[in-house]
User: Which sequence fits this backbone?
């Protein structure tokens, strides 16, 4: 954590104090005073015990850009790194949320990817969640940040930790080369649908490269047209075919790409739902999405959640978490 110095991130700092998206629950705080915030944070950690409520009150109600200003003010007035101080004062999931909130978006993504590949085993779900849902621009910056922070190319880290066709899909996503125009080439869309069908449902075994070429390269509007056409040719939804034809991480990454193309907030709503339903909570997923989407599209994610599951995201978080961890997540979630 402590390697995330404000100074080394000058190139990524945001020129304005506004939120990075316009559908978030976290918005720019009015009458923002970074020095006063830094002072309150300092006081929340003074003496015996920590005032978690004060930390939540400030950090959950400031944009990422405003939090960077607080970090600078804290360092100027206290002579120490805010993240380091909070890191040693806090623990558990609450600590993970707070430290995530202090990072710039691409820094947080890079940090999560790094954690997913550290040590034995790989948290493939993290690689999928991030790489299948970020724009070309976002992926390019994540690549830059990763190289700068960890002195290793993200692509090298990924290839060292994954294998087979799953690895090839991730490497393709890391090139950040998806067409981002809005053009639909009608003839090509029909051809793409036909090729995917012939590579999967229509043959024994699956030619996964065809799926990769279409799903990782074509633009959103074009793909939506491909999915319609695919349904016509095969009589099945593309997601259903992916489930029938593939398994494991490869199935997961292709499904994530299709879902993000169709409706990104719905993709995140489903990931949140699955992280909490049943026994136990997959806190890593819950934290990652709540922190990363809070000022981008949390309003849309909440609306999708309610539509898909008939319950509010707020009620799910409330029933599934506790203590200060629950409080800060509910603040990031915003009201019912």
Assistant:
């Amino acid at each position: 954590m402590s390697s995330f110095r404000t100074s080394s991130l000058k190139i990524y700092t945001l020129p304005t104090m506004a939120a990075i998206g316009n559908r978030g629950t976290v918005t720019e705080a009015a009458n923002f005073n970074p020095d006063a915030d830094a002072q309150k944070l300092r006081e929340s950690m003074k003496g015996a015990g920590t005032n978690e409520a004060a930390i939540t009150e400030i950090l959950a109600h400031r944009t990422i850009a405003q939090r960077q200003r607080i970090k600078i003010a804290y360092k100027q007035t206290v002579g120490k790194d805010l993240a380091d101080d909070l890191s040693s004062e806090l623990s558990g999931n609450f600590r993970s949320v707070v430290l995530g909130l202090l990072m710039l978006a691409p820094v947080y993504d890079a940090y999560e990817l790094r954690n997913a590949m550290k040590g034995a085993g790989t948290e493939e779900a993290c690689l999928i969640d991030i790489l299948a849902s970020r724009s070309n621009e976002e992926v390019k910056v994540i690549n830059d940040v990763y190289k700068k922070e960890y002195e290793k190319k993200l692509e090298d880290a990924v290839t060292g930790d994954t294998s087979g066709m799953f690895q090839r899909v991730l490497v393709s996503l890391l090139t950040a080369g998806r067409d981002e125009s809005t053009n639909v080439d009608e003839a090509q869309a029909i051809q793409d649908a036909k090729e995917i069908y012939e590579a999967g449902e229509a043959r024994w075994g699956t030619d996964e490269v065809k799926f990769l070429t279409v799903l990782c390269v074509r633009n959103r509007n074009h793909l939506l047209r491909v999915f319609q056409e695919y349904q016509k040719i095969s009589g099945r939804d593309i997601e259903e075919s992916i489930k029938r034809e593939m398994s494991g991480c490869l199935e997961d990454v292709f499904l994530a790409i299709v879902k993000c193309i169709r409706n990104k907030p719905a993709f995140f709503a489903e990931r949140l739902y699955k992280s909490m339903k049943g026994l136990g909570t997959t806190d890593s997923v819950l934290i990652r999405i709540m922190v990363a989407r809070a000022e981008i599209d949390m309003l849309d994610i909440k609306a999708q959640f309610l539509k898909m599951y008939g319950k509010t995201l707020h009620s799910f978080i409330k029933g599934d978490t506790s203590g200060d961890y629950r409080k800060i997540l509910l603040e990031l979630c915003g009201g019912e």
Remarks:
- The first helix runs from residue 34 to 44.
- The chain is about 65% helix and 0% strand.
- Confidence is low (pLDDT under 50) at residues 1-8.
- Residues 263 and 317 are 22 Å apart (CA to CA).
